[in-house]
Write a structure and sequence with these properties.
Number of strands: 11
Structural class: alpha/beta
Distance between the termini: 20 Å
Radius of gyration: 20 Å
Largest sheet: 11 strands, mixed
Order of helices and strands: HHHEHEHEHEHEEHEHEHHHHEHEEH
Length: 449
């Protein structure tokens, strides 16, 4: 069941005594514990006692009119990639199980706590965040929210994060996005996922995949919910989000790469969403984006993710490579073949790519494209490594384009009720985060008619 409660509505209920932090946390914990649900696979660790105690504390603070924010007492989930004081950060792997517990919270976790959000647990993920599919052979794979009996993938790498929102096990989720890991699972589960401009949110306290491309962002039910969480993560003031009127929006659809090899349902849903926006007065132009062609060339040898993950993992994988997911270790080990010169070439090429892409996007409010080329495949269909690789690349392709150009982007559900989930992505150059949120808030209701 989709989570239809917004953070603003929950805050209003808390403020007027129609709900309590204790009630919200108990409801989320019950859904996590439901043996018929996905909680046992969506979460690697549940903070039941701490969450309930914190909820009681938040209720007392609110009663005394000293709650730390309007959102104090709302339950959130945290991806297993982040440090939480006193807990082992496994990053979805068995290789880190014997690591010492974290001594401090990651800054983004500390900021959520400071605003009064309650962490109910650590969510499952692709091991070391290295896939857009969301399969985890160590802790199980949570089934995506759509057509659950058929067992579709949840999307990755923030798989449990998205399922925790879709199944009402949390009302906000902290994820990461190196090549789409907030946006892909959001698209596959019919929710919203946001990738911020990287420099806005500190990366300390999170296990890195690619220090060049990693971003920390939120998943939630609406663009406004993500904007609230994003402000907290970036340590910015939470200000009301003003939706932009669709009439007059200047949107560019990049024909290069982003529209190639789309599943029929993706192409149909995306076109229908564009037509809806055009009817409301959006100015939509198809453009060539040759910079996107360069991304595939830059990533041909594994790119930043292979080079930088190998640098981080090389000693751990030498001693514990036998407990890694082979599909993950294979991609990490591609970085061993990259030379220092290859890496410097990548850095130089990316600087040029960012500058050229920013100039190309400057006349428009945002780029608009499908979040993924594919709809969520069935887990059973990906047992074959070739099938897995094909679908993984198709899930990652469009989102990766935006990480490579140092942009910001949001994925909105574009499908109608009962249809296979399809995400529509709005993207812009670095620093345009607020504009992307305003555009998203303006159109999210219109694109599903």
């Amino acid at each position: 069941m989709k989570n239809t409660s917004t953070l603003a509505a929950l805050a209003d209920d808390l403020a007027h005594g129609r709900s309590s932090a204790r009630k919200l946390v108990e409801e989320c914990l019950a859904k996590i514990a439901d043996p018929a649900g996905e909680g046992q696979r969506a979460f690697i660790h549940v903070d039941k006692q701490a969450a309930l105690e914190t909820a009681d504390a938040m209720d007392r603070l609110r009663k005394a009119n000293v709650a730390p924010s309007a959102f104090a007492g709302i339950p959130v989930s945290v991806k297993d990639l982040f440090d939480i004081k006193g807990q082992v950060t496994r990053a979805g792997s068995r290789a880190l199980e014997d690591s010492p517990p974290a001594e401090t919270d990651a800054p983004v976790v500390a900021r959520l706590r400071r605003a009064g959000f309650i962490v109910v647990g650590r969510t499952n993920m692709t091991e070391f965040a290295y896939s857009g599919i969301g399969i985890n052979p160590h802790y199980g794979t949570p089934k995506g929210a759509w057509n659950r009996s058929a067992g579709h993938v949840p999307g990755g790498s923030s798989s449990g994060a998205a399922v925790s929102i879709a199944d009402r096990m949390a009302y906000g989720a902290l994820g990461t996005d190196t090549g789409g890991s907030c946006r892909i699972p959001a698209a596959y589960n019919g929710i919203v996922g946001f990738k911020p401009t990287q420099r806005r949110v500190p990366l300390d306290g999170g296990v890195p995949l690619s220090t060049t491309l990693d971003s920390f962002g939120p998943l939630a039910n609406t663009a406004s919910c993500c904007a609230i969480l994003d402000a907290v993560l970036a340590d910015e003031a939470i200000t009301p989000l003003q939706p932009r009127p669709i009439k007059g929006m200047r949107l560019a659809v990049p024909k290069t790469v982003a529209l190639d090899d789309l599943d029929e349902a993706v192409a149909k849903t995306f076109e229908r969403a564009l037509q809806a926006l055009a009817r409301e007065g959006a100015l939509i132009e198809e453009i060539e984006m040759p910079e996107f062609q360069d991304v595939g060339i830059m990533n041909a040898k594994g790119g930043f993710a292979a080079a930088e993950s190998f640098a981080w993992h090389r000693f751990l994988i030498a001693s514990k490579g036998n407990v890694y997911d082979p599909r993950v270790s294979l991609r990490i080990l591609r970085g061993e073949a990259l030379s220092a010169a290859d890496y410097i070439d990548l850095l130089n090429a990316r600087r040029s790519l960012i500058a050229r892409s920013a100039a190309r996007m400057a006349p428009y409010d945002a780029l608009v494209m499908p979040t993924t080329a594919n709809t969520p495949p069935r887990i059973a269909d990906l047992a074959d490594d070739k099938a897995f690789t094909t679908q993984n690349l198709r899930s990652l392709r469009n989102c990766t384009l935006i990480n490579m150009i140092d942009g910001c982007a949001i994925s909105l559900p574009a499908h109608r009720e009962g249809e296979v989930p399809v995400g529509l992505m709005l993207a812009a150059a670095a620093g345009a985060d607020r504009r992307v949120f305003e555009l998203a808030a303006g159109m999210e209701g219109a694109i599903r008619v």
